[in-house]
Amino acid sequence: MLKDAGVAYGGVNTNVRIHDGYMFEIRLHTTEGLATKEPKHKLYEEQGTTKDKARYEELKRMMAGEADKMPTPPGIGSIR
C-alpha cells in the first residue's frame, strides 16, 4: 500500500537529478486525485500559517478525509 490512511496528500512524487546536477520533482496525480487536491489548497495554506494547534489538527483531518476517499491506482507501486 502506497497511501497511508490519514495523510492529506495522495500524489506520487519523485525527485530526478539530471546530468548537469540540477534536481527537480515530478508529481503524478490521477484526474480524480488532482480534482480533490485543488479545493484543499486553501486549507493547506491556512494550515501552514495557523498558530492554533487545534485548528492545525482540524485542517489536517479535513484534508486527510478527502485523500482517504481516493482509490490507489493499480500498478502505482511499480513507478520508480
Q: What features would you describe in this structure?
A:
- The chain is of the alpha+beta class and 80 residues long.
- The chain has one domain (12-73).
- Helices cover 44% and strands 15% of the residues.
- It is built from two helices and two strands; from the N terminus they run E-E-H-H.
- The protein has a two-stranded antiparallel ribbon with strand order 1-2.
- Strand 1 and strand 2 form a beta hairpin.
- The relative contact order is 0.23.
Helical amount = 40-55%
Please write the string of helix (H) and strand (E) elements: EEHH
Strand content: 15-25%
Structural shape: flat
Tally of strands: 2
Oligomer description: single chain
Could you tell me how far the N terminus lies from the C terminus, measured between alpha carbons in angstroms? 15 Å
Residue ranges: pLDDT <50 for 5 or more in a row?
Answer: none
Strand order of the largest sheet: 1-2
Q: Helix/strand-derived class? A: alpha+beta
